Amino acid sequence: MKIIHILFLFTFISFTICHASVNDFCVADLKAPNTNSGYPCKPVAKVTSDDFVFHGLVAGSTNNSFKLGVTPASVTNFPALNGLGISAMRVDIEEGGFAPMHTHPGATELIISIQGEVTVGFVTPTGVYSKVLKSGDLFVVPPGLLHYVINSGKGKAMGYVAFSSEKPSVQILDLLLFGNKLPSNLVAKTTYLDLAQVKKLKAKFGGSG
User: Fold this and answer.
1) pLDDT, mean over the chain
2) DSSP alpha helices (H): ranges in the chain?
3) Residue 23 CB neighbour total at 10 angstroms
4) Can you tell me whether residue 100 is helix, strand or coil?
5) Same domain, 67 and 110
6) 115-145: per-residue pLDDT in tens?
7) pTM (predicted TM-score)
8) Tens digit of pLDDT for each residue in 54-104?
9) C-alpha torsion 126→134→152→163, nearest 10
10) What pLDDT was estimated at residue 88?
11) Does the annotation list 104 as a binding residue?
């Protein structure tokens, strides 16, 4: 019984000491190198209230192949997010536009529809999960799954996205397949696409080979 009491006391003290030494926040010092554990903390004496505000969540340019505009608020432009495991993004999609099949390997994505109508969905080896969203609707995409967003209504669609990462990565399927230097015949063979179509798509997305 005494051993159990000692172990409990040791655990409690260790837990208390560990959490007492942790800062309430760690505003990123973006002038320092980024490491596997994130950015180092900006000295607390240099932190101000302005560090905890982001003013730039405005409409992004939709002048691209997808008619898609994104404006991220992640640790690289909102350093107070450092170590908090959260970030945000504004998404604007013109009529007929879409966010192509893509993944965020290390982040859950919460889509919040604000304006217009979009069709969103993700795919798994066993099914497709898709819904039409209108203003006020939310949709969650589990981490690492291929998903898409299509403006399926009239006029411009707009919404916000929250991620469970302060710096979510993104892998866009079209760019991975056709924005690279892989030989076109290899891409055609491994995707069952016509070789001419592969070359056309490589020209569109800046690939070669």
Assistant:
1) 88
2) 2-20, 173-178, 184-191, 195-205
3) 9
4) strand
5) yes
6) 999 999 999 999 999 999 999 999 999 999 9
7) 0.81
8) 998 999 999 998 999 999 999 999 999 999 999 999 999 999 999 999 999
9) -60
10) 97
11) yes
The position carrying tokens 């411009």 is: 156
Both 70 and 87 in a single domain? yes
Q: Is residue 16 part of a domain?
A: no
122 occurs within a structural domain: yes
- What confidence tens digit (pLDDT) does each residue in 155-199 have? 999 999 999 999 999 999 998 889 988 899 998 999 889 999 999
Annotated ligand binding at 95? The verdict is no
60 plus 100 within the same structural domain: yes
180 shares a domain with 160 = no
Q: How confident is the model at residue 3 (pLDDT cuts 50, 70, 90)?
A: low
| Residues 126, 161 within the same domain | yes
Domain count of the chain? 2
Query: To 5 degrees, how large is the angle CA 112–CA 116–CA 119?
Result: 65
User: Are residues 155 and 182 located together in one domain of the fold?
Assistant: no
Same domain, 68 and 105: yes
5 annotated ligand-binding residue:
no
Residues in contact with 146: Cβ distance below 8 Å, sequence separation at least 6, in sequence order: 101, 102, 103, 122, 123, 173
Q: Please give the structure tokens belonging to residue 186.
A: 């290899």
Q: Does residue 38 sit within a domain?
A: no
Smallest CA-to-CA distance from 37 within 46, 47, 45, 28 is with 28
